[in-house]
Automatic annotation (TrEMBL):
<dbReference type="InterPro" id="IPR013023">
    <property type="entry name" value="KARI"/>
</dbReference>
<dbReference type="InterPro" id="IPR013116">
    <property type="entry name" value="KARI_N"/>
</dbReference>
<dbReference type="InterPro" id="IPR000506">
    <property type="entry name" value="KARI_C"/>
</dbReference>
<dbReference type="Pfam" id="PF01450">
    <property type="entry name" value="KARI_C"/>
</dbReference>
<dbReference type="GO" id="GO:0005829">
    <property type="term" value="C:cytosol"/>
</dbReference>
<keyword id="KW-0028">Amino-acid biosynthesis</keyword>
<comment type="pathway">
    <text>Amino-acid biosynthesis; L-valine biosynthesis; L-valine from pyruvate: step 2/4.</text>
</comment>
<dbReference type="InterPro" id="IPR013328">
    <property type="entry name" value="6PGD_dom2"/>
</dbReference>
<dbReference type="InterPro" id="IPR008927">
    <property type="entry name" value="6-PGluconate_DH-like_C_sf"/>
</dbReference>
<feature type="domain" description="KARI C-terminal knotted">
    <location>
        <begin position="33"/>
        <end position="178"/>
    </location>
</feature>
<dbReference type="GO" id="GO:0004455">
    <property type="term" value="F:ketol-acid reductoisomerase activity"/>
</dbReference>
<dbReference type="InterPro" id="IPR036291">
    <property type="entry name" value="NAD(P)-bd_dom_sf"/>
</dbReference>
<keyword id="KW-0560">Oxidoreductase</keyword>
<dbReference type="GO" id="GO:0009097">
    <property type="term" value="P:isoleucine biosynthetic process"/>
</dbReference>
<protein>
    <recommendedName>
        <fullName>KARI C-terminal knotted domain-containing protein</fullName>
    </recommendedName>
</protein>
<keyword id="KW-0479">Metal-binding</keyword>
<keyword id="KW-0100">Branched-chain amino acid biosynthesis</keyword>
Length: 180
C-alpha cells in the first residue's frame, strides 16, 4: 500500500479497510511508496523476471544446441523444467528449492551459479536500476512509442522466430494438458 497524497488524513485507514474487505490483508499489507513500487517493479521485470530469465534460458538453450545436443532435450532442460524450480522457490524460498533438488543440483547451484551470475552482472543490474531511477528508461520507452515502436516490434518478431520458440511450440503441442 502506498499513500502519495492524503487530503482527508484518513487515506491509510481507508486503503487498509479496502485491502481487508477484498481479502488482500490476510497475509499482511506492506507499506511502500509509489517510487519504490515503480522502480523495483521495473527493475525486477527488466533484470530478473522477464529480461534476465529469458536471456538466461536462451543462452542455456543455445549453448546446449551449439554443443550438439538435441534442441528438444535442451528445451526441456533449460526452459520447460524451470516451472518446477520456480514453484519450489515460490513455496519455500531458495533454501526449500535447494532442499528439494538433488545434492548434485544443489552443489552446482553453489559452485556454478555464481560463475554465470557474477559481479559483472550485478554491475550491469546497478546500471539498469540507475536508468530506471533517473528516468532515462522512461524517456527511451516513451520515444520508442512515439516513433511507432519500430525497435520494439523488430525485437518482438526476431524473438518469436528464435529456435527455442519453434521447438517449444512443437513440444507444447504434444502436451494436451497445456492447451488453453
Amino acid at each position: 500500500m502506498a499513500i502519495h497524497q492524503d487530503a482527508s488524513g484518513k487515506a491509510k485507514d481507508t486503503a487498509l479497510a479496502y485491502a481487508k474487505g477484498i481479502g488482500c490483508a490476510r497475509a499482511g499489507v506492506l507499506e511502500t511508496t509509489f517510487a519504490e513500487e515503480t522502480e523495483t517493479d521495473l527493475f525486477g521485470e527488466q533484470t530478473v523476471l522477464c529480461g534476465g530469465v529469458s536471456s538466461l534460458i536462451k543462452a542455456g538453450f543455445e549453448t546446449l544446441v551449439e554443443a550438439g545436443y538435441q534442441p528438444e532435450i535442451a528445451y526441456f532442460e533449460v526452459c520447460h523444467e524451470l516451472k518446477l524450480i520456480v514453484d519450489l522457490i515460490y513455496q519455500g524460498g531458495l533454501s526449500y528449492m535447494r532442499y528439494s533438488v538433488s545434492d548434485t543440483a544443489e552443489y552446482g547451484d553453489y559452485t556454478r551459479g555464481p560463475r554465470v551470475i557474477d559481479e559483472l552482472v550485478k554491475e550491469e543490474m546497478s546500471q539498469i536500476l540507475a536508468e530506471v531511477q533517473d528516468g532515462s528508461f522512461a524517456t527511451e520507452w516513451i520515444s520508442e512509442n512515439q516513433a511507432g515502436r519500430p525497435s520494439f516490434n523488430a525485437m518482438r518478431r526476431m524473438e518469436a522466430e528464435h529456435p527455442i520458440e519453434v521447438v517449444g511450440k512443437k513440444l507444447r503441442s504434444m502436451m494436451p494438458w497445456l492447451k488453453a
